[in-house]
Amino acid sequence: MAVSISATMLMTLDGVVQAPGRADEDTGGGFAFGGWAAVYSDEVLAAEMGKGMAHAGAMVFGRRTWQDFITAWASATDGNPFTTHMNAATKYVVSRSLTDACAWENSVLLRGIDDVAALDGPLSIVGSAALVRSLHAAGLVDHYTLVIHPLTLGSGARLFSSPAPMTEFSLTGSVTTTKGVIVAHYARVSPGAR
User: Fold this and answer.
1) Residue 56 pLDDT
2) Tell me, which fold does domain 3-188 have in CATH?
3) Where are the domains of the chain?
4) Is 114's pLDDT higher than 80?
5) Rounded distance, CA 104 to CA 87, Å?
6) Angle of CA points 121, 143, 8, to nearest 5°
7) Coiled-coil annotation: which residues (predicted)?
8) The whole model's pTM is what?
9) What is the pLDDT of residue 194?
10) How far apart are alpha carbons 188 and 194 in whole angstroms?
């Protein structure tokens, strides 16, 4: 079985994916708008995000997101189903600078995109924009869930901040939340399928 990668990205209308969760999540480049997604949470969004857990499988992270998630999830014992899923899942962290992945149970260190491509089965990514860009460029992202928030920020890291290869996707479903967030699901179209 070949690897199949699904990426979930919280983004603004102008494509910013940097620091949706907290003010101090990622201030790189002087980014001052961290935590922009919090005011848009509602039950519809929670249910949509929870659907991803129904297809539990291994996860893949870039180093920075993996380290950030450790602080939020690794020692949590709140009974939240997302916490249970995050801690139980196999977590692949792609990094050239880490020496090991012992800081979070069920974590495995990978050194690069070729190591990800060599894996079998479904993988999911939440965040890790730089890794998603690299996987997309290598033709390895099969599905996107884009959680599009109704605001623009004018600055910050964008999902595709550099040219991405021509890739077609088909909309497979969408939901609009009570706060105007669009959760759009896309599947990659195989070359020559149209």
Assistant:
1) 60
2) Dihydrofolate Reductase, subunit A (3.40.430)
3) 3-188
4) yes
5) 8
6) 100
7) none
8) 0.91
9) 56
10) 12
